[in-house]
Amino acid sequence: MALRLLYGAAIVTPAPVEPRMNRVWRTLVGVSGMLVVGAAMARTPGPLPCPDVRFLSDRPLLGGAASFDAFVVDGVGQVVIDGACAAVPARWTNRRDGSALLRARWASCGSAVKVRLRARYDATCTTASGRLSAQHRRPVAFAAAPSRCGDGHLDPVRGESCELTTPCASTPCIDCQCEPSSSTTTTTTLAGATTTTTLAGLFEAANPWNMDVSGLSPSGESGSIIAALTAAGGWGNGNKLQIDFGLHVLHAGPTTSFLTFTKRTGYYTPDCDEPFPFPLPAGGAIEGQAGYTCNVAAEDCHLLVVDAAAKRLYETYNATMSSSMLVARCGLFWDLTRSYPSGLRGEQCTSADAAGFPIAALLFTADEVAAGDIPHAIRFILPNDRMRAGAYVHPASHAGGPSGGASLPPYGVRFRLRADFPLATLPSEGARVIARAMQRYGMLLADGGNIALTAASDTFTTHTWDEVGIDSHSLFGIAVTDMEVVDLGPTIPLTYDCVRNP
To answer: Rounded to whole angstroms, how far apart are CA atoms 355 and 467?
Structure first.
């Protein structure tokens, strides 16, 4: 200590502390603070991350035979990797954004030693990602999602006996359960059909789309409707009767997997049905796609499946597989043995098609053209401003968003190709088969858009469009003025107030 005099008084001041001692003191204070904070965190770690949610990794974590591993944190904070790592206490950190970081260590998991798991869960428990390492092994980075029916991973721990990619031996797979042989959900005495039609089209019973109208006289409004459409610009796409081949028609067989779909935002209620098991044939696809995923924000994304054995047609609109779920804005099925009443499924009710029609029943196929006969009416569409606003006519039960004048064709109108149309001017016999169907059954106005005709793709048919001499331009020789209106019923004001038929 130093002795100093201040105005005659003696005071004592402490000797200065060495710099090294300052550093030691600060270190001790910091360590003690961290120990206090750490002890507090250990006592109150926050809520468990996704307790009892079984996550499946997108790859094997420890080199097992399965294509995935399952890990789960139980309700008391123990984490386990199924079939590999026994339960051990987990450590976790909850973050401000709602996500959580989990860590776990095992001395050994089978032949692997010093195993470390690090996983980050999102706030909604819909995804996880992380890394697993073990001594003398290459670390594995993974992504994971909750195990659920439809994810393609057969998970017996959840009670699954089948999956979309793992069908049952001889019965349908309904929501990841093999149906008993005695089930009546789907009759299995017949395999899925390889063509898209019977002698009366898809429907065995009489309905407007398989009605022969070749002998009917033109409607009294035929001339004015045809003239108004011609003046408005005719067919869409530069007034060309072009064919769109984007819609797939799939076929369910005895072992097809079914998955109950989920409603997406804006689901059409009560027009469409409450969720039910929907068939997803292996290798199938949604409209315009190569599989079961589709950009629902930009595309119509129709999914059409015929179950010939059960005599049902299943259809969805705006559908896609998302997070192992089939989600749709409309889902329903049609009874192929039923003659539907006036108004079809219900007055002012839509379906997967804007007009309320069964889409697949109106699509012509390469197999039909190869057989030389299309035994049903053909679906056609027009731009919204070339259809009569605020109205529809039977056999339609609904309209989308038509915005044209009162003389234009309404939703549900039936055009028929004139009997005197020179078929020989068409470029192929396949084109003439289509034209003869237009003369016998006509075309029904079903939706709004620019490409007038819709045919089934040849991805799931026996014959191809090339084989039958058809491309998107094959019917360019048919003009609006070659058509006439027949079977025109009373105009029904459009209210969108759906009332379902029994």
So the answer is: 32
